Amino acid sequence: MTISDYPEQWPVTASKEHFRGRVFGVRTDTVEMPGDDVADRDYIVHIGSVAVLALDDDDRVLMIRQYRHAAGHQLWELPAGLRDVEGEPLARTAARELAEEAGHQAATWYTLVDLMSSPGMTNERIRVFLARDLSPVEIDFVRTHEETDMPVEWIPLPDAVELALMGKIHNSPAVAGILAAYAASAEGFHTLRPSDAPEA
Description:
This protein has 200 residues and is of the alpha+beta class.
């Protein structure tokens, strides 16, 4: 058997939207199940996001700290943002977020890992990019709210792995990106997909 996720959509006999906001909505679908049964499935409809594991020449990961109200935590994260510009290539979205949140640009981009953040409750997709050949840029963006004070730290990749495994880093794209980068580093990052690889 080939192990690979693939798209499939079971028939929906009814759908009701309960809420729609700028970033996500909440709906209930009545879905046809095996055995001539139906079941209601509540889920969050999300516009999707990107994240950037920026790795410098000393194999240090650029991380930022941000307050997350829903989680009730200050979390160490990768620069990240919403897919909120229609038609914008995901690598361009990621480059914009890296510049705005961390004041850096990258000359080399790869697709590091694709995630479905919590597929039992949301359709959110996250693409995590690996950014290399970094250089600083001036932040030409006015930070507000949670982004007003986001400290930046450079963490050696092996230390970041240890922090993730010790439960010190909880943000899911950060944990996935750190572990994926560490695994890919064993092959010199040569097995990674190009930055414009299609999403399955």
